Amino acid sequence: MRAMFTVGLIWLLGGLAAGVNAQEAAPYRAGTHYVELPSPAPTEEPDKIEVAELFWYGCGHCFSFEPIITEWKKTLPEDVHFRPVPALFGGAWNTHGQLFYTLQSLGKLDETHEAVFQAIHNQKNRLADEEAMIDLLEPYGITEEEFQSAWSSFGVRNKMEQANRLARAYRATGVPTLIVNGKYRIEGGMVGGFEEMLKVAEYLVEQERQKL
């Protein structure tokens, strides 16, 4: 009986030690380096692990983050889907979010995304109205008629409504913010910078991959 008790105690202590070691080995922890959302937000491609970036064209931090995350996106494996989501917190945020989805609907987002950032932050063009946007986009082959049609389309309005719901589901209060698979929110202030945000995202992607 004593031998059985001893074996059981050794097994229990060994299990506890393994659990402690696993916790110590984890480089990032919920509540410290990221936030686990109470309810998962919907993702765009359910068969892949999603990394969403909540951003605003008018945000200086987002502008600084853009070249970093652009290079990082190129390294993502096939099972990871990157999804930019404009933050719609009212006023200019919504105007620029509508611009984002207008460009996306026209199939021009890839070639104009950086130009919008540059116009706002380097050229001091706030892109506060449709006229300013049309002037900026004319060199990219977007006519005023095409822009106006997409700008007021049902598809763009629907995307705006989806983005609004996503921001609430993410429970985000600032940008840039990363959301991994609709479950985890990563903020720069929690981890100390852009590069660390991406490291936490990679860690969480791997955690999600192991669950598949």
UniProtKB/TrEMBL annotation:
<keyword id="KW-0732">Signal</keyword>
<dbReference type="InterPro" id="IPR017937">
    <property type="entry name" value="Thioredoxin_CS"/>
</dbReference>
<feature type="domain" description="DSBA-like thioredoxin">
    <location>
        <begin position="79"/>
        <end position="203"/>
    </location>
</feature>
<dbReference type="GO" id="GO:0016491">
    <property type="term" value="F:oxidoreductase activity"/>
</dbReference>
<dbReference type="InterPro" id="IPR023205">
    <property type="entry name" value="DsbA/DsbL"/>
</dbReference>
<dbReference type="InterPro" id="IPR036249">
    <property type="entry name" value="Thioredoxin-like_sf"/>
</dbReference>
<dbReference type="InterPro" id="IPR001853">
    <property type="entry name" value="DSBA-like_thioredoxin_dom"/>
</dbReference>
<keyword id="KW-1015">Disulfide bond</keyword>
<feature type="signal peptide">
    <location>
        <begin position="1"/>
        <end position="22"/>
    </location>
</feature>
<dbReference type="Pfam" id="PF01323">
    <property type="entry name" value="DSBA"/>
</dbReference>
<comment type="similarity">
    <text>Belongs to the thioredoxin family. DsbA subfamily.</text>
</comment>
<keyword id="KW-0676">Redox-active center</keyword>
<dbReference type="InterPro" id="IPR050824">
    <property type="entry name" value="Thiol_disulfide_DsbA"/>
</dbReference>
<feature type="disulfide bond" description="Redox-active">
    <location>
        <begin position="59"/>
        <end position="62"/>
    </location>
</feature>
<keyword id="KW-0574">Periplasm</keyword>
<protein>
    <recommendedName>
        <fullName>Thiol:disulfide interchange protein</fullName>
    </recommendedName>
</protein>
<dbReference type="GO" id="GO:0042597">
    <property type="term" value="C:periplasmic space"/>
</dbReference>
